[in-house]
Amino acid sequence: MAKKILLAIDQGTTSTRSMSFDTAGKPRKVSRQEFAQHYPEHGWVEHDVEDIWKDVKKTLGDVAEEDGGDIQAIGITNQRETVVVWDRETGEAVHNAIVWQDRRTAKFCAELKAQGYEDEVRAKTGLILDPYFSGTKLKWILDNVKGARKRADKGELAFGTIDSFLLWRLTGGKVHATDASNASRTLLYDIHKGQWDADLCKMLDIPESLLPEVKDNSTIFGETDKKLLGRAIPIGGMAGDQQAAVVGQACFKRGDAKSTYGTGCFVLLNTGDKALKSDNGLLTTIAYSIGGKTTYALEGSIFVAGAAVKWLRDGLGLIHRAADTNDLANKLDDNHGVYMVPGFVGLGAPHWDPDARATITGLTFDATGAHIARAALESVAYQTADLVDAMVADGAKETRTIRVDGGMAANDWFCQFLADMLDTKVERPANIETTVAGAAYLAGLAVGVWDKLEDVAASWKEERAFEPQMKKGKREDLKKGWLDALARSRSKIPA
Ligand SMILES: Nc1ncnc2c1ncn2[C@@H]1O[C@H](COP(=O)(O)OP(=O)(O)O)[C@@H](O)[C@H]1O
Ligand SMILES: O=P(O)(O)OC[C@H](O)CO
After folding, report:
1. What does the pLDDT read at residue 493?
2. How far is CA 349 from CA 113, 131, 420, 453, 456, in A?
3. Is 14 annotated among the ligand-binding residues?
4. The whole model's pTM is what?
5. If you measure from the C-alpha of residue 263 to the centroid of ligand 1, how many angstroms do you get, rounded to a whole number?
6. Angle at 402 between CA 80 and CA 430, to 5 degrees
7. Where are the domains of the chain?
8. What 3-state class would DSSP assign to 442?
9. What is each CA distance from 242 to 178, 181, 207, 443, in whole angstroms?
10. Which parts of the sequence belong to the Carbohydrate kinase FGGY C-terminal domain (predicted)?
11. In CATH, what class is 4-241?
């Protein structure tokens, strides 16, 4: 008899992967596809949703076939905030997906701020008025795609983040739903009441008929169309990728923290049933909602982490592979005063400066490619340290250790430097693909493979821990250099 397995899809910013897991939570097979990024104008970032759908079908089919197990359920996790609007009749998108990194609504966000909406937005959604989040992107589509607003008013269109769009396609157009973690990134969802907010919809001129139903993260969302995998399979879990990583890293207790290093970097600290308000530029977000009980997190979001390394490879041609940065950084005994601030799409938390730009400072004639590579890796650690400092300033005392994952966490030099900058133990799990694992766990929970999330925690295993080794004085000197470089990248010199 075929072994029972779970499948999960991780639809990320630069790649889509599907993975199978056994019922002890152990990974089995994986299939991955990179897809095209579109930059139609300065600061704009789009995805062709048909590329995404094609890759989801391919990777899912590959894994199901290669694994050959008996699929119990499917989980979905996704790049968050990215907006899709599609026709309910044909399932076709009316525009490319507008990606979370896209800055086209920066001016509109500034106008809303000037009109005094920031406090209400913050209080209800835990977010701030930044183009990062879905709401203003959704409004842009309605205002700029010919006929879209009229069709939306007539109820012909549907909005969703990528999870929701994939659910629609996987169920053959039968289910229009999302989960609480993805809803909490839209600017339209009241995270305390657990419902779409009519005033926020009014602020952004969004008809509520466009919005998906919001469900818990672990529940039967629907069944796949038989045509896809030969039979209908329940879709049992959905979560934004950073929240799925919280689950995959087994950060179930208050004070547990994880940091994921993919395209961007996202630090989430579990704050239990308390939605802690940040006074230091962090976001309050839903970590997961299970059995009607919501767990919150404080989040620090950095827009560029691994993407800076990708730029070294694709933009500068300085390295062949992302992993080369490890040896380049190791070659130097020090950064020799060279810093990079990777503000390629502005700066996220805790600065929220959409007009900041990337800078490299401290260059002299003896600087080499190794200095630039090291500066890119260092910059991600300094930014993480800024976020953790903000969490501590917000009253989060319990950041005992931090669990890392994502593509860049494979870099040993980076992980050690991170431990040194945070002055905290950094734990790397044996399965670095925690995001997709989190989605599989949520799906397994919904169909009774596990009784409770904590059962899954048993499958979390440490691969390596990095202990801080740097002296305090050295750390402080490096951070001072970073703060100086940071000030130079800002759109306005901070007061
Ligand atoms: N060994 C490495 N050292 C540094 N960066 C790396 C390494 N391996 C991958 N990366 C970076 O990590 C990112 C890929 O991570 P991944 O988790 O797949 O991202 P995403 O889900 O955002 O597409 C890329 O931006 C890449 O440059
Ligand atoms: O695709 P990732 O892994 O870079 O994650 C993107 C985030 O969800 C954006 O908020």
Report:
1. 63
2. 17, 13, 21, 29, 31
3. yes
4. 0.91
5. 6
6. 85
7. 4-241
8. helix
9. 15, 9, 28, 16
10. 258-446
11. alpha beta
